[in-house]
């Protein structure tokens, strides 16, 4: 019955997550992709990522209306050496790493692996928020779909929540990097570390030290590049800290 659809929340901004609940199994089509409704309580649910580039407006889900509000994101300019700038031209290495990442994120536990709220993985200074448009040496580079937390090299980095290490490897642009599977296609990403302290396949608990802050890969100083991937879409990490976007 259409009347048994619900959206939580029904008004969002780019970078957010929404929950969809229904009384029947099935699928939800969102931006030309199908999301399976999974059993939960007396009904079924799925969650949908609102990507940074999703157009503002109203969208129909079941008999409910989702409103996506426009959100203004700032810009950031950084300067790097010519040698570092040339790293972005190594397309073969970048594509090879992306295949590893895609494979790691293609498989996920069928259930959430966490039972509590999320923690910020490192104490540091926020230098780049989620959503910034970044210019490198005066040229448009990318949207920054993560947060950067500056800290002293060697500062411990903690698992934001329980999960399984889907990938722990040295990657060309993001340096020493970790992806943790938290279940149901939710992954946390940690990049530019000086040292990896876990390996692919390890089970981790919230607060476990998984690596140390560094400046490996395409990086201008010691920091942690951190984000969440929801169904392979990077979403705003601030949705998670001290809470969870999965409110019922």
UniProtKB/TrEMBL annotation:
<feature type="domain" description="M23ase beta-sheet core">
    <location>
        <begin position="143"/>
        <end position="237"/>
    </location>
</feature>
<dbReference type="Pfam" id="PF01551">
    <property type="entry name" value="Peptidase_M23"/>
</dbReference>
<dbReference type="InterPro" id="IPR050570">
    <property type="entry name" value="Cell_wall_metabolism_enzyme"/>
</dbReference>
<protein>
    <submittedName>
        <fullName>M23 family metallopeptidase</fullName>
    </submittedName>
</protein>
<dbReference type="InterPro" id="IPR016047">
    <property type="entry name" value="M23ase_b-sheet_dom"/>
</dbReference>
<dbReference type="InterPro" id="IPR011055">
    <property type="entry name" value="Dup_hybrid_motif"/>
</dbReference>
<dbReference type="GO" id="GO:0004222">
    <property type="term" value="F:metalloendopeptidase activity"/>
</dbReference>
<keyword id="KW-0732">Signal</keyword>
